């Protein structure tokens, strides 16, 4: 992260309802290693076009760092497992979360979906 990116996190949290900061949940698909949906829990912070956070899944703990665009709904981030590998994610925000594809260089791609972990009907800012 460069100095300019760090300044973006001094901005207030994103107000677009598709990008609420806080707890998120979801899954990824990796049929070569897991059967069905692999659950993950995340805590994400969206500010000034940058997203960062952390989470866990059956592989381990990880950090998240990336970017999002309110206008075109695109989201890209890196999921870095502690002491292990990095997974690259890219997708689009919709009303029910972020859908897209992940990849690890040299391996087949897989799908993912993450969404805010809030009760249905709860208003988010």
- The CATH H-level superfamily is Quinohemoprotein amine dehydrogenase alpha subunit, domain 2
Number of strands: 8
Structural class: mainly beta
CATH class: Mainly Beta
Shape: globular
Total helical elements? 1
Instruction: Report how far apart the termini are.
Output: 26 Å
| Main beta-sheet annotation | 8 strands, antiparallel, barrel
Please trace the helix and strand order, writing H or E for each element. Answer: HEEEEEEEE
How much strand? over 45%
Strand order of the largest sheet: 1-2-3-4-5-6-7-8
Averaging pLDDT over every residue, what do you get? Answer: 89
Query: How many domains in all?
Result: 1
- Helical content stands at under 10%
Q: What is the CATH third-level topology name?
A: Lipocalin
Residue windows where pLDDT falls under 50 for at least 5 positions = none
User: Architecture, according to CATH?
Assistant: Beta Barrel
What is the rounded Rg?
14 Å
Task: Give an overview in words.
The protein is mainly beta and 125 residues long. It has one domain: Lipocalin (Beta Barrel). It is 5% helix and 54% strand. The chain has one helix and eight strands; from the N terminus they run H-E-E-E-E-E-E-E-E. The chain has an eight-stranded antiparallel β-barrel. A hairpin with a 2-residue loop joins strand 6 (86-94) and strand 7 (97-103). The chain is globular, with a radius of gyration of 14 Å. The model has no long low-confidence stretch (mean pLDDT 89).
């Amino acid at each position: 992260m460069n100095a300019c990116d760090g300044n973006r996190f001094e901005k207030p949290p994103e107000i677009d309802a598709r990008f609420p900061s806080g707890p998120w949940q979801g899954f990824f698909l990796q049929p070569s290693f897991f059967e069905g949906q692999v659950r993950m829990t995340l805590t994400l912070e969206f500010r000034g076009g940058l997203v960062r956070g952390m989470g866990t899944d059956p592989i381990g703990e990880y950090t998240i760092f990336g970017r999002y665009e309110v206008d075109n709904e695109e989201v890209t981030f890196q999921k870095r497992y502690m002491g292990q590998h990095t997974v690259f994610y890219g997708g689009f925000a919709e009303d029910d979360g972020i859908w897209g594809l992940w990849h690890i260089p040299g391996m087949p791609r897989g799908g993912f979906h993450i969404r805010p972990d809030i009760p249905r009907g709860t208003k988010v800012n």
